[in-house]
Amino acid sequence: MSPVDPQEYREQAIVQLTELANEAHSRATSKYLPTDVRQKWSRIATYIHQTANTVLKAYDGHAINEKLEELTRRVEELMEEAEKPGE
User: Which of 10, 8, 43 is closest to 24 using CA atoms?
Assistant: First the structure.
């Protein structure tokens, strides 16, 4: 079994959640379904959006951490260069 890339997994999850949210929204706004059924679909759509938001926050957090690590490396490199005598 090959290792799972967390970022790729999150991207796939967002695509699937978006598809599910679109379907739930469509049913929640359908004029052909009874009100109680539409309310249930509305709750499901809300829950799907909350889940997607959680996944996106994790995705954003990972991307921010990568940028911070890159910036830290660059600052450390510049500090090392500045400490070298005669340059």
Answer: 43
Q: Is-contact 48 17, C-beta < 8 A?
A: yes
Asked if 55 contacts 18 with a C-beta cutoff of 8 angstroms, the reply is: no
Two structure tokens written together for 11:
């991207």
Backbone angles phi, psi at 33, to 5 degrees: -100, 150
What is the tens place of the pLDDT at every residue in 53-63?
988 888 788 77
Q: What is the pLDDT of residues 71-81, one digit of tens each?
A: 888 888 888 88
Whether the full predicted model's pTM is greater than 0.85, yes or no, is no
Q: Which of 61, 47, 71 is nearest to 6 (CA)?
A: 61
Structure tokens at 35: 């009100």
